[in-house]
Structure formats: C-alpha cells, structure tokens
Amino acid sequence: MTQVTAKDEELIALLKADAREPVAALARKLGLSRTTVQDRLRRLEESGVIAAYSIRLSREMDQGGMRAFVTLAIEPRRQVEIARMLSRFPQIETLHTLSGKFDLIAQVKTSSSEAMDRLIDDIGQLPGITRIETSVILSTKLDRR
User: How far is the C-alpha of 132 from the C-alpha of 41, rounded, in Å?
Assistant: First the structure.
C-alpha cells in the first residue's frame, strides 16, 4: 500500500470538493509546484489510492423522485446471497453492511412514492430477509462525497 502523506490527504480533500480543479490551482492551494502535484496525482492513481474520478449532479438535475434508507435484517449466513440479489435492483444506489440490529443498509432512489412502495415490497419478498425498515430522506444538509 502506498504511503499517503499529509499533503496527499490535502490534495485528496481538494479533489473531493472539485475533481476538475486545474493542477495549477491545486498546486497554488497546496503550496507546491505544478510538477510535484502532477507526480503526486500519478502516484496516487497508479497505486489505486485514487480509484476513479466521477461527477455529482447539481441538486436541480438530481432532484426528481424520492430517496430513502432501507435497513434490512437478514437470516444468518445469507448476507452474501441477499447482497447479490439486491444488486439487481437499479434503484439501489449504495449498499453497506452494518453492526447492530440490522445487517445491511441501502440508499435507494425511486421516481415516486408509489415506486418506492413497490420497491420496498419487492425487497421484502426476498427469501432470507427477516425485517425491513425504511426512512425517507426529506433533505440533505451536508454531502461531502
């Protein structure tokens, strides 16, 4: 694994805020030369620390529909199988394992409350799911992704 320095962490934080920021602007903010920043980026990419660059849509573009967190309790030893089944639902944006009374949490997005209701029903029908709880997201106060 590549050693990540404090300057690397600063660079990563800047890229999280705006992955399209020009290297010259990154260098200025970090107090480094443009060449040094380019070398750091290349090293972080080649080592896999930076896996990819992506986009985040504006709130206006991403506004339609509704989002929710769906927590799932699963029968013992069926988590891998359930995760594989859940990966077939395009409405599931993220899926995480948890500690505590639930085993998995999914962030889902649907076009309407009716579509959300159908999705929750479909997920609840999967064999091995013992309990499901849904929390609709009303608004996002902070998103650092």
Answer: 42
**Structure confidence at residue 18 (pLDDT):** 86
Report whether 64 contacts 29 (CB < 8 A).
no
pTM: 0.65
On whether the 6-46 domain is CATH 1.10.260.40, my answer is no
Closest CA relative to residue 108, chosen from 57, 67, 62, 56: 67
Report which residue type is found at 34. Answer: R
Please say whether the beta carbons of 98 and 71 come within 8 A.
Answer: yes
Residue with tokens 């602007």: 25
66-136: CATH topology: Alpha-Beta Plaits (3.30.70)
137, 8 contact by CB (below 8 A): no
pLDDT of 16: 85
**pLDDT, tens digit, for every residue of 39-67?**
999 999 999 999 888 777 666 656 678 99
Give mean pLDDT, residues 105-132: 95
Which residues, 6 or more positions from 82, have their beta carbon under 8 angstroms from its beta carbon?
72, 74, 104, 126, 128, 129
Q: Give residue limits of the domains in the chain.
A: 6-46, 66-136
